[in-house]
Amino acid sequence: xxxxxxxxxxxxxxxxxxxxxxxxxxxxxxxxxxxxxxxxxxxxxxxxxxxxxxxxxxxxxxxxxxxxxxxxxxxxxxxxxxxxxxxxxxxxxxxxxxxxxxxxxxxxxxxxxxxxxxxxxxxxxxxxxxxxxxxxxxxxxxxxxxxxxxxxxxxxxxxxxxxxxxxxxxxxxxxxxxxxxxxxxxxxxxxxxxxxxxxxxxxxxxxxxxxxxxxxxxxxxxxxxxxxxxxxxxxxxxxxxxxxxxxxxxxxxxxxxxxxxxxxxxxxxxxxxxxxxxxxxxxxxxxxxxxxxxxxxxxxxxxxxxxxxxxxxxxxxxxxxxxxxxxxxxxxxxxx
Length: 336
Known about the structure:
It is built from 11 helices and 4 strands; from the N terminus they run ααααββαααββαααα. The chain has helices at residues 8-35, 41-44, 50-104, 109-127, 150-161, 167-178, 184-189, 217-230, 241-298, 302-327, 331-335, and strands spanning 130-131, 134-135, 200-203, 206-208. α3 (50-104) packs parallel to α8 (217-230) and α8 (217-230) runs antiparallel to α9. The model has no long low-confidence stretch (mean pLDDT 84).
């Protein structure tokens, strides 16, 4: 009977190949035991990868929607804070105007105008707020600061109010400046877009638009009133002191009455913020469900993997022992 054998070099090669194979298997099992997920997904799913691909695509979409919702929530918060600042400045200026007009008299007119200029700057600064390089109150022209500076506004108003000798002429000039379509406010002061900014897709067919612009009538009215208070002590007005104080009293009342429209504006924004918050919760729940489904597909039985790992380690140790013993087999040792 013929005896088949292999040479020493072939035997060494075979042993090394087994070591490499067992080492790879041990690394795979070690990864599965530590992560709880299959190291070779295709092998684990027997090549049926379409369900996993669908889940991962849905996860990517949900993640993008979640990021968009978070950004929209930040934008909404910044816009709400800006509107609150405008409302607060208008409230303080209204109270000051009414107090000066009825109590302080002529001596309080210059301080009132100075306070109005600061309030106007604060209002415009708040409405020029931006997030990630996007002006939030500029509509579909988010790359443009929506409002010119308070100084520019007052300079333009001085031009149109010059020569107006009575309250009626002043009011008509203000109407033409602020309210006429295509007038100075829309062409010089407001520099944002005429349309709303693009909506934010929140998934499930839902879209939210933060569409408040600095040219909104409620904001325009409060800016108009504050700017006029800032000019009460200006020489451009051909009014005596009594008329200036009476105008200040009227402007204080208008600032107060304009607060109701500001509340409505903030409530509208609040509704959008609530929708965004609900969408964030829904998207988070979707991502959790998708993550669980994905984990169910790629997870392994850790106990079985640990048992297999122990078996591979035992085989590898035994192979190392055989390799060491085989390396000691030589003719001298055999003959001794």
